[in-house]
Hints:
Layout: E1 10-13, H1 19-25, E2 31-35, H2 45-54, E3 58-62, H3 76-89, E4 93-97, E5 100-103, E6 106-112, H4 118-135, E7 139-142, H5 157-168, E8 171-175, H6 176-185, H7 190-195, E9 202-207, E10 211-214, E11 220-223, H8 232-245, E12 253-255, H9 264-278, H10 285-291
Parallel strand pairs: 1-2, 1-12, 2-3, 3-4, 4-7, 7-8, 8-9, 9-12
Antiparallel strand pairs: 5-6, 10-11
Helix pairs in contact: 1-2, 4-5, 8-10
Amino acid sequence: xxxxxxxxxxxxxxxxxxxxxxxxxxxxxxxxxxxxxxxxxxxxxxxxxxxxxxxxxxxxxxxxxxxxxxxxxxxxxxxxxxxxxxxxxxxxxxxxxxxxxxxxxxxxxxxxxxxxxxxxxxxxxxxxxxxxxxxxxxxxxxxxxxxxxxxxxxxxxxxxxxxxxxxxxxxxxxxxxxxxxxxxxxxxxxxxxxxxxxxxxxxxxxxxxxxxxxxxxxxxxxxxxxxxxxxxxxxxxxxxxxxxxxxxxxxxxxxxxxxxxxxxxxxxxxxxxxxxxxxxxxxxxxxxxxxxxx
Length: 294
């Protein structure tokens, strides 16, 4: 089996339509990532192919169903399945979202926003502590994409994340696309948001595409669709992140595509584009974006 170490390279989400091509061509890519909930069964073709691919590549596991921000504690049966999956594939990283997706025994197929206040902070920290204890590993918590905010919030998102990291020792999964989407939707500066995060706690970066819409008032509304190439604005923000990390600070970066999935070659091209930016830590963000051909 491959080493558990995750290289400071770009990786892509592993999709079933690419299983056979990956095994046949063995593309030069840093790692693959899968959604944990797609593999929470004992057997079947998904496990057959993932097991073979895991022998050749590093792997990260991304959860979408723990409902870290929910009122109820994380579901113990779900944690048991996660634990079994982690023991089976030994992923380099496990990540989840700062969001909630279930309430009163009902699961919603969405990642819903939180009120950023002291009560929510205490609850989220309790849930992360339980997850890290049960899985015996550090969780990376992903900043969400949001479309509405709570009037009851008493903290900003960056401050909330800083405090979660301080209290729990968890890491951050910095989703640069989510940062751009949320800041545009709420009329904020994404560069200032990034500057306010505890970047020393970031263990992985996500890049993805979004779609454009308008809200009821006619203002721009970005949707975190994962169904398009990474936008120029997100590439520029990613370059800024690399600059802030400094020389030698490049981090494993995943290119996400969950809808309208293109041929494998298109995803690999985006991964190469990310690595071009990662290799130029001394250039200015504007220069690196231009050199990468964004």
